## 1
Amino acid sequence: NGFGPDVLALKTGAINPGGATNMISFFDGNNTAIGRIEGNGNNGVFYGTSGGDYAESLPRLNLSERIEKGDIVGVFDGKVSKKTTGAQYLMVVSSRPAVVGNLPPEDQEEDYVNVAFLGQALVKVRGKVRVGDLILPSGYNDGTGIAITPRDLKIEQYPQVIGQAWESSNDTGIKKINVLVGLPFYSRIASEISSLKQENQSIKQELQILKKQVSQLQSLLKTFDTLYSLNKPNRKIKGGDFKNEM
């Protein structure tokens, strides 16, 4: 009525709108649908997009550093850089975010990059990749990563894992690979770390048992040695005990 707070309201004649009821559709210049808001068939709506991850805008550590989509970045006190050595967190710059949080004012957007927090993200990777490989920083501090099979991953490398490859490539150069990042993957890593901790605890317990058994054996040996010292023959040999027979 012009006096209320509402700006836009969309209404459909369907009592329980499903996927056939598009509230809003988005198209590119070629009339290709790139997103929509439609009914979900359960008295609600869902938001559909070709974007693959939830991202947030994080400030650059160095404003002059060039950071591109797909770059692996290190996070230092909330700011990002392609330098990964010594970083508190390792993440990737989003190529196709579905949602972007923490968006800065338009006049400051150049000072920020959209970093993928959860979902599927394209990551720059060096060398061949197989589905299921784990992606880690290459160590060149240039935004690229490398692929390592889970069985070859060392314990000290766990904190460096960015995500898991969901596609393969025989290209030995640098290319973008679709990678699972965020909570689903890190839940698996946490589970594996927990399993390693349990295994380590079992080894410690077995080691304690072995130490106790060794201590008991040492005590028995000491007892046997003492008994032997007390009971060993102490007869002195006399010269007459030996005779020369011709």
## 2
Amino acid sequence: MKKFAPWLYWFLAAVSSLQFAITYVVTQKGFKFVDFAMGQVTYPFRRRIFMACVYRGFLRLGLHVHFKTSSLGANEIFSIVVNAAMLLLAIAVARFWIREMIGQDSPWEWMSLLVIWVTNYHFLLTPEMHWQTPYDVPSMAFFGLASYAAFTRNRWLFYPVFLIATTNRESTIFLPMVFFLFGLGSAGSLWQALKSTRVALVLETLAQFLLWYVVNQTCIYVSGGPEPSLSLYRINFHLLINPTHWPTYFSLFGFLWIPYALFFDRIGNQRMKRIAWLAIPWAMVMFKLSDPLEIRVNSEWVVYGVVCLSLISKNSIQPFLSKAPTTETFDGRLAEFPGDLQQHQ
């Protein structure tokens, strides 16, 4: 049975991704995809040029493919293909990340399928403010992949994904911070790690911010320039204190933020725990620039959150499954890089 487990895993992941994409395609669109592809939507949506370019290429392909052989139009086919592929990518990243930290052929890697639940909740099940855009699900997958690359210090993967993801959505300004926190020493508190920060890490992080700025400004320039920026603090404050919206706020990440917060110490790995500090600047930025009822704008953290939940579950349950109780967990002190953990398993 064990040899069929990977096949079953990928079958469930693929079918679930397709099911999500087929359901998501009938969700109300935030704007017409053709207008988005041609840069005829408002700022900041038109600044997110990556999926606009992909969609234009898809439309050109459509000139050679007779879409009328299907009951679906070009928009629907594009949405299903892109969102199914991107959700499957996010699931795969979560699985590889869990295997990197806990070990290969571990039952905990099945928890990566929680990405399906959170994605369905953020984009389909949330009771308020959900609609379809071409870049949201890709943003979740790209951000998760870049975070995984930052954790493993795989720069050959991190930088290409960082560049692509930045043209897709500007939230990648947080990726240099992710890269920096993952690059700190794995032992001790955040303050202790900061005191021993390498100059090379600081310079590389600053270079990433500069790279983000250049790419972001290029996207703004080629998309027709920015419009006057808006601050939504006043409106969002009234939304925040309205108790009728509180159930939506509590449903963030499909309610999985609750075990993350309650059992945070059981994550064990110091490098993973430090990422939680980014919740503060993230919340401030999103509170200014987005509607808090749009919980989908927080989907960049889905992959990271699922990996943390797998660590919490493993460190909570495994002692009871062992013959001799143990308090040993992976706290990051075994090795500088997570890949070295496997030799300690």
